[in-house]
Design brief:
heterodimer; A: mainly beta; three-stranded antiparallel β-sheet; two-stranded antiparallel sheet; 29% strand; globular; B: mainly alpha; Heme Oxygenase, Chain A; 2 domains; 14 helices; 66% helix
Chain lengths: 62, 326
């Protein structure tokens, strides 16, 4: 397992994060990372924050 | 798993050939019609492919390499692939020959306007419709991700690492109870259905069989590895939103939480996997071997075509039932 965390922004989509153990949400609450890669909500509309639930696909282009 | 019931001359030939009283009989010729929605031909292909996965009770394991069955498999595959290439030609003609393949894959999915069985399940479907859906998809989801594992040894470098990463998540990330196929079995059981592998093989439609067979065809044939990964990208990119709707439908109808758990998992997992599959796997594959580009796009288009038709078939069946009931 790589020791570094890599973050990639998907245009119009979520942030893909590799190598993280924990994600802190906007309220400071810790969320354990249980996948090799996670997608973090970047549109603010996910019902499963901090994770992406693809709601951005239902929102007209910004 | 027991051998299924035959559905016509081609599946009868395969099932008889694998039975106790196996005798060398000439292979019947395929009929002139399309094999895509031919239940007899698709069942025959499914049985031949299963010899590479779990096999059947009482069938010796080395029948996997029965030359007569392998030859029949190739005859069916040639027709199946040719029909898929012909039917996706127009869609693919609109894709530019250059450009970011990952984005092109996501665009193909975003522009797909097939009627949504998931939207119907979300708002209108009855309990029986959801049960019908779980049953129809069981032949593919109870071996979820297995066909794509055949592709791992055919890749190298970044594409291989990305597919391994995606498959590790599909296979539960080290937690057997999170294996997606196992979660699907749990979902079936919680809905009052049989969780057994192949339990509904005699009931599912030709298109349900075609949807799982296409993954095996792309996965098992090294020549089609590009199509296998393009199919995977389209499948993942067309999953997260529908799974959210199906989970909503299951909850609306009061199914136990264990039924929806599989779909909730896929809302999150496939929001990740669509990017990993399209950019990290397909993008890396095409960068390493640009000649695979056409097949990657073909695989994605084949996925959209078959899943679109399979969804439309269910929608037609369900709306006809609702109209009859009203």
């Amino acid at each position: 397992m790589s020791s570094g965390v890599v973050v990639r922004l998907c245009p119009g989509g979520p942030l893909l994060v590799r190598g993280a153990d924990t994600v802190l949400d906007a309220a400071g609450e810790e969320h354990e990372v249980t996948r090799p890669v996670v997608a973090l909500c970047a549109c603010g509309k996910s019902a499963r924050k901090p994770w992406c639930d693809s709601t951005h696909k239902s929102i007209p282009d910004r | 798993m027991k051998l299924p019931a035959e559905r016509g001359p081609i599946s009868r030939h395969v099932i008889t050939a694998l039975g106790d009283d196996a005798v060398a009989v000439p292979v019947p010729a395929l009929g002139p019609g399309d094999v895509i929605d031919d239940a007899d031909v698709q069942l025959a292909l499914w049985v031949i492919y299963e010899l590479h996965y779990r096999g059947f009770d009482g069938v010796p394991a080395d029948r996997e390499w029965d030359l007569g069955l392998v030859e029949l498999r190739r005859v069916i595959e040639r027709r199946f692939e040719a029909e898929l290439r012909a039917t996706t030609r127009d869609l693919l003609a609109g894709v530019p020959e250059h450009g970011d393949i990952g984005q092109q894959l996501l665009d193909l999915v975003a522009e797909d306007d097939s009627p949504s069985a998931a939207a119907f399940m979300h708002r209108k479907a009855t309990r029986e419709h959801l049960v019908d859906y779980l049953r129809e998809r069981s032949v593919q989801q109870l071996k979820e991700s297995d066909a794509q594992s055949f592709v791992l040894p055919r890749l190298d470098g970044s594409a291989k690492a990305a597919l391994a990463e995606l498959q590790y998540d599909e296979y539960g990330g080290g937690r057997p109870e999170r294996l997606h196929a196992t979660m699907y079995a749990e979902s079936l059981e919680a809905a009052g259905l049989d969780r057994g592998y192949g339990a509904y093989i005699d009931e599912v439609s030709a298109l349900s069989l075609a949807c799982t067979n296409v993954m095996s065809m792309f996965g098992i044939n090294r020549r089609l590895r590009g199509a296998a990964m393009g199919h995977l990208a389209a499948f993942e990119a067309s999953s997260s939103v529908p799974c959210r709707k199906i989970a909503g439908g299951l909850e609306r109808l009061g199914f136990p939480p264990a039924v929806a758990a599989y779909f909730h998992e896929h809302v999150e997992a496939d929001a990740v996997h669509e990017h990993v599959a399209s950019h990290d796997i397909c993008g890396a594959m095409v960068a390493a071997d640009p000649s695979l580009r056409e097949d990657v796009l073909f695989g994605a288009a084949a996925c959209l075509h078959l899943d679109g038709r399979a969804g439309a078939e269910l929608l037609e069946r369900w709306t006809a039932e609702l109209e009859q009931a009203s």
